[in-house]
Amino acid sequence: MNLMFLTQIPSDWFLNSACTWFKRKEKEARAVDSAVRISDTGLCGFGFPEKDMKAQVQAALEEIRPYIQADGGDVELVSVEDGIVTIKMTGHCVGCPSSQVTLRQGIETHLRKRVPDLVEIVQAPDTQQVPSAHAPVTSPFAGGQGVSAAPAPDTVTTHLRDMHRKAEALLTKMETSVEAIVAGQGKPEHVKGIEEAIDFLTNELMTHMRQEDEVLFPALIPFISWGSPMSVMAKEHRIIHDEINDLATALKAYKDGGDAGGLARVAKRVSQRLRDDFYQEENVLFVEADESIVGSRAKALKEAMVRISAAATRDSEH
Predict the structure, then answer these.
(1) Could you tell me if 144 and 11 are in contact, meaning their C-beta atoms sit under 8 angstroms apart?
(2) How far is CA 256 from CA 138, 189, 253, 260, 294, in A?
(3) Which of 22, 163, 174, 253 is the most exposed place for a label (fewest CB within 10 A)?
(4) Mind listing the pLDDT tens digit for each residue in 132-146?
(5) What angle do CA 140, 142, 148 make, to 5 degrees?
(6) Domain segments of the chain: what residues?
(7) Band of the pLDDT at 244, cuts 50, 70, 90?
């Protein structure tokens, strides 16, 4: 989708769009939590039987819909099947680089709190982000200048982007392996492919996320007055860490004779969350970093990230 229309909208609108929902929701979270709780009577907090998941999901979406609509977007419930909720993002959410943050940290977090039996939340195929992490996307921080997310050579984020590409290659290999296993065509090399991905995610990718959390994100605070993107992504990293552990547990269960379906569900969730994470970072935070952190400051940051990597290597050798 062509996102050049974004350059016609004042930059302040983007700042409000990306953070208003989360700020408003945070202010009302305590009131909502005190008014709506899971009871001990077998009914969900909205008063519906637990089996009526669709009604629960619809009620939860109605709670947060006004906040999404306030920023020009909307969300529709497409289906609920076997605990898997499919939603459709509309309005300004379509093609917006921040829509996946809204989906994962806003909508998904709220639905999981309100609907305990929810298994997974997916986006309807025709409304998912069209551009890949490789595609140029206008930055919401570009101030109407149409700055592309494509980086200049050897910027402060070059190494981080390279790590994303390596992770994506291993995720694709893992997805192919899981598909073969689910289809009953699993071979030892397919299990090995998943193990290879888990090993990378557990070690190299976790080090990569430490570099972002401890070096890059704090360095961006002076340039982004509202800290929501960094705090959201740092929280996302903690969730990813837990889900990678879930993936390792699911693989072990499969190897011990468990159901391949359980492995497939966890692998899909991990893959989707990581790809969403990469997309958000490359098309929002990395753009700002490459524009604002240059020269001696960029050199100092890269050296700090190298030190974290070296320390992780030393720890792994002991």
Answers:
(1) yes
(2) 48, 17, 5, 11, 51
(3) 253
(4) 333 333 332 233 333
(5) 90
(6) 4-127, 158-317
(7) very high
- Distance, CA of 229 to CA of 17 (rounded, Å): 12
Q: Which residue has the tokens 């006004």?
A: 66
Residues ≥6 apart with Cβ < 8 Å to 129: 95, 97, 99, 100, 279
pLDDT at 27 over 60: no
Summarize pLDDT for 187-228 with one digit per residue, the tens.
999 999 999 999 999 999 999 999 999 999 999 888 875 556
H-run or E-run covering 268: helix 260-280
Q: How buried is 317 (Cβ within 10 angstroms: 0-12 exposed, 13-18 middle, 19+ buried)?
A: exposed
Region 4-127: CATH code? 3.30.300.130
The string of DSSP codes covering 217-239 is HHHHGGG-SS-HHHHHHHHHHHH
Rounded CA separation 160/261 (Å) = 32
- Residue among 170, 155, 175 nearest 203 (CA): 170
| Lookup result for tokens 């009302």 | 28
Read off the tokens for 177: 């392996």
pLDDT at 147 over 70: no
For 158-317, CATH gives 1.20.120.520
Measured at the CA of 177, the angle between CA 167 and CA 165, to 5 degrees, comes to 15
